[in-house]
Amino acid sequence: MNSFPTVSDLQDSVVNDFCDLVTRILSTKDTFSVSLSGGSTPKRIYEMLADRDLPWSQIHFFWGDERNVPHDHDDSNAKMVSTALLDRISIPPANVHRVPVDVDNPASAAKAYETTLREHFAGQAFPAWDLNLLGMGDDAHTASLFPGTSAIDQTDRWYVENWVEKLDTFRYTLTAPAINSASQKWFMVSGENKRAALASVSSDQIAPSEYPSQLITNPKWYVTADAMPQA
């Protein structure tokens, strides 16, 4: 795991690595596809990326998970990314693939977004992201794959609605296979409150129903020192 003294150091590293990866990938093909994470740590990363001179017309943005709220709601991941990044850069609207939230019918919205993904990544068994950005909660969830929820066991679907009992709401999320199909998967973990979860995820006890972040294979970890498991 890559350990950083502060969350600012972590964010600086992710931004620099993101820009380097975009440059490298676009030297070999025409487009770069990234699945985004919600949360306060990624938000600052998106704000920093908005100040970088990147070939935005070649970058496609998707959402790894979303809340079941309208896009103009303060809890919306779409709103957060728009405010932090998309509203501040020049990018073709066709490059921005938001989850079509339907508060009253989340199953329909999830299927519609899966159709969007399958059309964009046509002919592929699962979406071939260049990068999947991930966070981890203090309960070891990632995207909206929460402990004990049905989406953890999905192996055929790409994107699903997921009932989260402890939140008393639906969330939208990529399934584990649709996350693992990324060429690169970067976990961004900060804060002392994540230490116990990260220790469980990185332990020899394999229990993805309890620690869903264990479902993600061969990720790259960006972790602040206060979140690192104790030796």
What key phrases describe this protein's structure?
231 residues, six-stranded parallel sheet, Rossmann fold, 9 strands, 6 helices, three-stranded antiparallel sheet
- Helix share bin: 25-40%
Order of helices and strands: EHEHEEHHEEEHEHE
* Low-confidence regions: none
Strand portion = 15-25%
Q: What is the CATH architecture assignment?
A: 3-Layer(aba) Sandwich
Overall number of strands = 9
Query: How many distinct domains?
Result: 1
Structure description:
The chain has a 6-stranded parallel β-sheet with strand order 1-9-8-5-2-3, covered by helices on one side. The protein has a 3-stranded antiparallel β-sheet with strand order 4-7-6. Helix 1 (7-25) crosses helix 2 (40-49) and helix 2 (40-49) packs parallel to helix 3 (77-84). It is built from 6 helices and 9 strands. It has a single domain (2-227), classed as Rossmann fold. The protein is globular, with a radius of gyration of 17 Å. By secondary structure, the protein is of the alpha/beta class. It starts with a strand and ends in a 7-residue tail after the last strand.
